[in-house]
Specification:
Elements (H helix, E strand, L loop, with lengths): L8 E4 L3 H12 L4 E5 L14 E2 L8 H16 L14 E5 L2 H17 L4 E3 L1 H7 L9 E5 L3 E2 L2 H12 L2 E4 L5 E4 L5 E5 L4 E3 L3 E3 L5 H7 L7 E10 L9 E4 L1 H7 L6 E8 L5 E7 L10 H14 L8 E11 L6 E4 L6 E5 L5 H17 L23
Parallel strand pairs: 1-2, 1-12, 2-8, 4-14, 12-19
Antiparallel strand pairs: 3-7, 4-6, 5-6, 9-10, 10-11, 13-16, 13-17, 14-15, 15-16, 18-19
Helix pairs in contact: 1-5, 1-9, 2-9
Length: 385
């Protein structure tokens, strides 16, 4: 039997963020193992729409992360199998009245300064871009850098390309500690995996993993629903949403919020998201959430009012109170790094997160300033979820 190479890092979580961390760590020459209590993309990733958005982010650290990720996704797309369904479709943010258009202008002004391509379009141009849009809209902005992937496939193909050892169906029950108390691996019911570094990419359970090391990471689940229609001709060309979606993304409210994001897929069905509410891990069906989404989608695209919804699905976004992910080493638990708390943007932000983690693991220069994502900003006592 060949001798197994000692591990350099163990990654907890086989969603798209964990897969990206594995991919970039392996590209940096590290030996990697990934462990997950479920299947690949069995959590938030598998319940996502595959959004790769810059359009919904104001100028600041998250937008910088999104722009880096957009570039990395473009580089990854030709390297990964076509099953990831990377589609540079662009985004279209629409406004019902001139007051909202003015608000979008100010928002886009800051984005352009950060490197976003934001193109204002009038009512007639809206209909040229999306012929089935409702009449009477005042205008909007076109974002050519917005794109989409099939999230579960993206995670699976990134993970396969990493060459990492993968242990599925194994929940991490504890962290291995060295003589000085530093994190030196993980324990499951089946095995110990030793390594000088552990990456917490556990999504909505990131706070529970941090607590195993005595660190605080206040990750909370934020539930969201998606509707899937019957297969259709390409009636929706871009990723289209009303301007109030931007405010919903930035909101910290625990109450139900809904603002339809409508997009076609290469396979034909139209995906309609997105709702947000903090209800713990309650998996019950919310007819109110589904009703709101359907009504808002039909208001944007009247052609959808007579289309059948074949199924719905929902999942939990890993929410942190300042709306920025935790990425990088945790000084309160040497040997532990975090890569979680991306809320609904994890698929889009995964490559840049992986690149930051790889830089931290290898001690090389990071691709952007990691300071805004420092996990130490959340104090010292363990967090409950």
């Amino acid at each position: 039997m060949p001798k197994r190479t000692p591990l350099d890092v163990v990654i907890i979580g086989a969603g798209v963020v964990g897969a990206a961390c594995a991919y970039y760590a392996a590209r940096a020459g590290l030996s990697v193992a990934v462990v997950d209590r479920g299947p690949v993309a069995g959590g938030t990733t598998g319940a996502g729409e595959g959004n790769l958005l810059v359009s919904d982010k104001e100028a600041g650290p998250e937008l910088d992360l999104a722009l880096l990720s957009a570039r990395l996704w473009r580089e990854l797309a030709p390297e990964l199998p076509e099953e990831i369904e990377y589609e540079a479709k662009g985004g279209l943010v629409v406004a019902a009245d001139e007051t909202t258009v003015k608000g979008l202008r100010g928002f886009a002004r800051g984005q352009r300064a950060a490197g976003v391509d934001a193109v204002e379009v009038g009512p007639d141009e809206l209909r040229e871009l999306e012929p089935h849009l409702a009449p009477g809209l005042a205008g909007g902005f076109h974002y050519p850098q917005d794109a989409q992937v099939q999230p579960a496939q993206a995670a699976a193909r990134l993970l396969a390309a990493s060459g990492a050892l993968v242990y599925l169906g194994e929940e991490v029950t504890g962290l291995l500690l060295g003589p000085s108390g530093s994190v030196r691996g993980v324990r499951t019911a089946r095995r110990d995996l030793s390594a000088p570094a552990v990456v917490n990419a556990a999504g909505t359970w990131g706070g529970a993993v941090a607590a195993l090391a005595g660190a605080s990471l206040p990750v909370l689940p934020r539930r969201g629903f998606v509707l899937v229609t019957e297969p259709l001709p390409r009636v929706v060309r871009h990723k289209v949403y009303a301007a109030d979606y931007i405010a919903d993304v930035a909101s910290g409210s625990a109450a139900l919020q809904s603002s339809a994001v409508v997009e076609g897929t290469p396979a034909g069905p139209v995906l309609i998201g997105a709702t947000r509410e903090r209800v713990g891990f309650d998996r019950s069906l919310s007819t109110e959430a589904l009703r709101r989404l359907a009504a808002q989608a039909a208001a944007l695209f009247p052609v959808l009012s007579s289309v059948k919804v074949l199924r719905t699905y929902h999942g939990f976004r890993p929410y942190l109170p300042d709306h920025l992910p935790a990425i990088g080493p945790d000084p309160r638990a040497p040997g532990l790094l975090h890569a979680c708390g991306h809320e609904g943007a994890g698929i889009g932000l995964a490559p840049a997160t992986g690149a930051l983690i790889a830089a931290a693991l290898t001690g090389t220069g990071p691709p952007l300033d990691p300071a805004p994502f420092d996990p130490a900003r959340f104090g010292s006592s363990p967090a409950g979820v």
